[in-house]
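Quick entry, no commentary yet.
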Amino acid sequence: MIFAALGASAQGKRSNVGKKKKPIVYNKNKKEEKPHWVFGLGWNVVDDNSHPFNKLFDIRKSWLIRPYPTQLIADRSSKNGFSLGGVFNFNVYKPSKLINGTIGGGSGLFFSLDFLAKYHLKEVIPLPKWADPYLPFGTGYTLRFAAPHRHTVMLNMGVGANFWIYEEWIGINVQSLAKFGMKAPIFKTGSNYLQHSIGIVVKLFLDKKKKWPFIKPKYPWVHRDKVSRERY
């Protein structure tokens, strides 16, 4: 029996020779996503009250928001869970709002242009198809006509998510960014502010073979390419 056990062990070792070790997969449910663009239209909120860690939801006194869309989004998917894109924001300062610790500072226009890299957490966490949380970070430029710091280069970081509500190509985007002015002391300068946003986003795939849910073939029993060839 001892010799039989030794023989079986040796045979098992020989059978494992040449087998490659399986790589570690963090998210077994994750599917490789095809290259795509994401475009969006939304609303942004500027919180420039000079209280970065207090009164975060002082909507009545601090939040600047317009009734019409004030944000444009463009985002391009990249590799390893990253995407790269830009965001343009417009807003209006009001004398009735708390700006840099004071009320009645005047009115003026607000513009910001940000370039962000986003790391999508579904790369490492099993998530349903409709959930796409991410961590944005990058830099940008802010122009404020009613605040003391008119021209400011910003360092941005925050949290956001896309919630795909129809066929993974129409969704809702929510995002919050902490923006730090590149002036000393960087985390305490009056040029810092918070910016929140919500909007509608559309995903456009670059793969020509991708089937769009809103395009219905004229002849369901014949492929669209075959129909076009038969017509000509």
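second:
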Amino acid sequence: MSVLPVAEAVFKAHQTRATGEVRMRAGGRVSVLGFRDGDLVTADVTFGYQGMAQSLLGGHRIDLATLDALWARGDAGKLGEEDLHELGTSTGTAHELHLLSNVRSMAELASDASFKETAVEPAFDPLPGMRVVRAVFEAGGAEVDDAVFRCADVGACEDWLQEEGDRELLETLREFGPLSGLTPSQAALLRVLDLSGKLERVEGEEWRRREAERLAEEARVRAEAEAEARRIEEERRAEERRQAEEAMAWFQESAREEAARKAAEEARVAEAARLAEEARIAEERRLEEERRAEEARIAEEKRLEEERRAEEARLAEEARLAEEKRLEEERLAEEARLAEEKRLEEERLAEEQRLAEEARLAEEKRLEEERLAEEQRLAEEARLVEEKRLEEERLAEEQRLA
């Protein structure tokens, strides 16, 4: 597979994890890509420059209408952080797309490229070498050499897968087959994997020869299979004819045997029908007798049941009357008990009233006696006070007269 000079130099720098510069020449100008440990850390673009807006367009971050709007505003060449934010792209992502777009543009235009190990001063954060390699290989376009590929181990290619369709593409390469409708990114992936030894490669002419041989072999096997199928079909038809003749002979013999069997069967069926009819009549007679006996048994059971129920009703009535008598006696006894209790209660209340009345009279008598005694005491005290007062007046009068 033909590889652009720049792609070969960048791939070598990445694979060897080298530190140095890839110098590209085009029309007397020299552009430089600086690598440290296989990752891109500086870029001096002197030809094929792509502006930020063009890079975003190539990276599918904006469409042509947006690009035209940016050119109309005069902002296409100087997109700031706020502009990128409005476009839905971070500054870091925009920087990577810008670098990769310029790498891709320089790879397309460069007529020569070489790598030289030398000290490199980083100008920006390292950009993974795998992404740079994919970008320079995309410069080769969407066409690949006249060859077919097979990827036996997709997992071994994992490090090189960057886009959503990459794995799906490799899954289609489980077997050798022609490729069509590749995008530049897919073609770049195949070039990288082929150069890395991750793919099995067969030149187109060789594959077409093998494919012609395979098709010829398939045609031969198919022809042999068809001939064998025709032979088997002829044998099958002959066997079917033989089996049909045998079947016809067997059918005729079977028809004769069937006629005899049918006659014997009809006689057997008639005899069986006669015996069955006799058995049916006997069975109907037996069932009728059993029915009558059952009806008599049921009538007897019904009579006995009615007698049993009448006896139960009589006994229940007697028990009910006895219970009513017992309850009446208990009621009368209870009424007598309550009357006696009432009488005793009345006597108790009368006795309590009598005793209360006697106590009241005794208390009144006591109080009256106490009142009379108190009156006598007070009268005596008043008398003594009066006598004392008169005595004092007498003594005072005597003193006055004396």
